[in-house]
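Anyone able to model this chain together with 1-O-alpha-D-glucopyranosyl-D-fructose?
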Amino acid sequence: MTAITEKQAWWKESIVYQIYPRSFADSNGDGIGDINGITDHLEYLAKLGVDVIWLSPVYQSPNDDNGYDISDYQDIMADFGTMEDFDRMLDKAHSLGLKMVMDLVVNHTSDEHAWFVESRKSKENPYRDYYIWKDAKDGKEPNNWGASFGGSTWEYDETTDQYYLHCFSKKQPDLNWENPVVRKEVYDMMNWWCEKGIDGFRMDVISMISKDQSYADGIVRDGLYGDFSPYVSCGPRVHEFLQEMNKEVLSKYDLITVGETGNIPVSEAELFANQDGSELNMIFQFEHVELVPGKIGKWTDKKPPLEALRKSLTKWQTTLEGKAWNSLFFDNHDQPRVVSRFGNDSEEYREVSAKMLATLLHMMKGTPYIYQGEELGMTNAHFESLEDYRDIESINAYHQYVDNGILTAEEMIRYLKEISRDNARTPMQWNDSENAGFTTGTPWISVNENYKEINAENELADPDSVFYYYQKLIKLRHEYPIVVYGIYNVLLPNHPNIYAYERVLGNQKLVVACNYTKEEVACSLFADYDLDGEDVVANELISNYKDHKLGILKPYEARVVLYD
Ligand code: TEU
Ligand code: CA
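re: yes, here you go
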């Protein structure tokens, strides 16, 4: 007898692990992570217990944005290896019971993609309408939009005296999804990968593929450029396009699909990840990692307050209940490290706060995503000098704001240390040998200097490590249907220090309490259980402390108790 009333699915019951190939493991000493490096470490992921791997792009790319600028969707980047290496990795993953999700980057290509090379040749070229070309307006760019990686979204091309649109860098021209031929090319390519045996797609900025055809000016917020979001994020035809993609590709295979959809309201998520399955399984929304508005854009060094975090996560948990499926994440290759950002990465509290944040996230309803190194409690790199940064977003933003006198250099470095995407992109820390065992050569980006202490080898030898804590959280999700399917209710909704919630399934109740601070906090949630443990039919499933203090949560303490 099960109390589960909603539709069950393997992708609801799975835990996903994201690999950023460039920074995971280098097998040939050139300083760049690669596919054979991943293949060598698949047993590690099987041991952690995850079900699915999401691979950031491994396609051919000139690497303007580390592979998110693709020049051939059906070939592998030389830095990463060959298609044979890929096939070997996929086979081994499958033999270990691991599924493989590909990153699908189809809002834009690289300017070195054959389609764009043709497109820019002439207005009559058959590939011209694969991209978005416009005439100058009043002798200037077609509108005032600012690109995500600095400058205008429009790049002038002399050959044909027109501008092309690029929402990201100028080496990432946006594809023209209004053109049915482009859509067919994309679906054909996706089908090709599905036939190869991959298990799903993570869809890069998929909410941006349909543009409002007015191309009107945006509101200027940074004193320089207009905001394109209202015209690009969830454009008029985005759901039509995804339903078409679903019909042409997704519905034909048993896949896991997750769309990256920044900046969208819950009502849109209900469409993207609807229960009928006509679009995607789930989406990544970013509200909970964008709680503190920067002085400009995302640039801030402030810690997200508990109240805002609870309000945001609770909103997504409760509003989507019964309507759509949530994804759960704190970290990815674009975000700083969770323990540094939301927790406390000091020697004293790093492990305990990393475990607390893991508990907070992994006991919620949705499919959890772990970003490489998160399971070790890896921290921000906190690079002090611009020379250490490699990320196009960080470097361009520095120049855009510092060179124009909008932020001081000192201020911008302070923000980069807390928020730069490179904090997530330092090499995976495997052991305490030189370069953390990531490479025998010179790494493309510096290794975090704390690798001697924080590394996989140390943690695998320590039963109390962050690694084994994640392993246990993963096991709990696999063993207890309430962790997957229980309904979420927030508890102590106004508590200044504790984030608590329950999950309810039939007669079962799971109570989760997390102390978000480094102070001891009074908490009566488990008093009945602690006082008369034998009478109360309950058991503690996990905690980051071995012993508890009656009526108290210790610094960053997390506890999960199941009442049957
Ligand atoms: O990111 C989408 C995106 O909007 C980013 O600008 C994100 O908000 C930002 O990185 C946060 O600082 C996706 C990919 O995840 C990212 O790595 C790519 O650079 C980007 O698309 C372009 O493909
Ligand atoms: Ca390599």
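The mean pLDDT is 97.
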